[in-house]
Amino acid sequence: MVVFGGTGDLAMRKLLPALYYLHRDGHLHEGTRIYALARAQHSAESYRKFAKRHVSQYVARSDFEQSSWESFAARMDYLSLDVSQRVEFPKLTKLLKKDSERVRVFYLATLPSLFAPTVKHLASVGLADEYARVVLEKPLGESLLTANQINDQIGAVFDESRVFRIDHYLGKEAVQNLLALRFGNALFEPLWRNAHIDHVQISVLESVGVENRGDYYDRAGAMRDMVQNHLLQLLCLVAMEAPVHFEPEAVRNEKLKILEALRPITGMDVQDRTVRGQYAAGEHAGERLPAYYFEKRVDHDSNTETFVALKTEIDNWRWAGVPFYLRTGKSMAQRKSEIVIQFKPVPYRLFPRSGDNPENNRLVISLQPDEGIRLSLMAKSPGRGMGLQNVDLDLDFADAFKRRRWDAYERLLLDVIQGDATLFMRRDEIEAAWRWVDPIIAGWQDCYRSPKRYPAGSWGPDAADSLLERQGHAWLDQRS
Ligand code: BG6
């Protein structure tokens, strides 16, 4: 495993902790070696110390064991290398030469602008052969055009079967559970269609602001940072047909069909069907929160959106007429990711209405911070008569499975090592996603309207509520 960007934030926060767990729990082959590469000067020993300081912060204290760390650190080596310099790559060849027929995973945890030179130089020193795989982190471009440029440059060196594009949402246990729920149970499938489902909500809300990533985020915004990848991938998993096999091409073919069936949002529809917002100063639990444009490394006149809500439809037989509402934002009232499947009402009301309870079943799949499934049903209210009220069937995965939940990167890194691309994005998926996202961003740019302000620590701009109210719907968290 060769990690470019080996001293960076991603390596420290996610990759090394994930590899540490895989090592500790016996999932790595005993010969597995980890080479961290970056420009900084380190000896192997000083790098291990540096890594220990960081990794111990990101691994649960009770899981950080001295003896496991030592045997893990013994797998690690460090090489100072400037990826923009072709002349530096022979050093890497020399290091990897003794294991020339072993699987080599090149993890590019660097700026995307370095992807092309890195793979070109790897090829030039003979390291991009059939034993090599490359892992790419988002952002993969800022538009269809720029994503294609990156993919062309990578594709010139690595064929598609050896390119692993990470969307870490697909590595989350709770997200994979969505597949288990849909395709491991006979119960839901007959109902999973427009005849029975009224609408779907997919929300990924974060309570944090942009933190230290202002320079990247201010160019990207929520649409490119979250919707183009994580939210659309969730939508695919909710909406796709059952794949013929649980293997990479079968799964990705089905996801692609959904992306291609998304109704385009263009022209005037952009104003009607999307809402973009930006957080203003606010307050949460008594703490004052800054406005987005006062965050570090953010332009004071920034028009970048930190919130998006939109309504889309999937033009196919299963989903025609069912609105899918997507929503994501930073500095929101709560950290919460969930999928709400709102079923249609009963065809005929037999029992008297009790209070204001809507008599519609609802399935809520919680992804984070808690993982669970909640099915709300109507039941008879105790006492006289036949008044009904909502009750929940509640399944909490932390209760159901006492084992430690794997971090997304543990699962994904192991999949790359084993060459399983099922949970990675194929090039055509990325392209289809950009093809759908580009006109929305263009529509926002054309209208010169600023994003709607919402107080940090709130549920986003009011316009996001109106978007649903127009159809007689409401975000689940906004219901009284
Ligand atoms: C990343 C985005 O892909 O996902 C971040 O770049 C975001 O802006 C993060 O905070 C959210 O991931 P998670 O796993 O914390 O929900």
TrEMBL record:
UniProt-listed Pfam families: G6PD_C, G6PD_N
Domain Glucose-6-phosphate dehydrogenase C-terminal: 179-475
Binding site for NADP(+): 39, 82-83, 138
Pathway entry: Carbohydrate degradation; pentose phosphate pathway; D-ribulose 5-phosphate from D-glucose 6-phosphate (oxidative stage): step 1/3
Binding sites annotated in the UniProt record for substrate: 168, 172, 206, 225, 330
EC number: 1.1.1.49
Class of the enzyme per the UniProt entry, highest EC level: oxidoreductase
Oxidoreductase in keyword set: yes
Domain of life: Bacteria
SUPFAM superfamilies: Glyceraldehyde-3-phosphate dehydrogenase-like, C-terminal domain, NAD(P)-binding Rossmann-fold domains
Annotated active site: 230 (proton acceptor)
Catalyzed reaction equations: D-glucose 6-phosphate + NADP(+) = 6-phospho-D-glucono-1,5-lactone + NADPH + H(+)
Stated family: Belongs to the glucose-6-phosphate dehydrogenase family.
Protein name (record): Glucose-6-phosphate 1-dehydrogenase
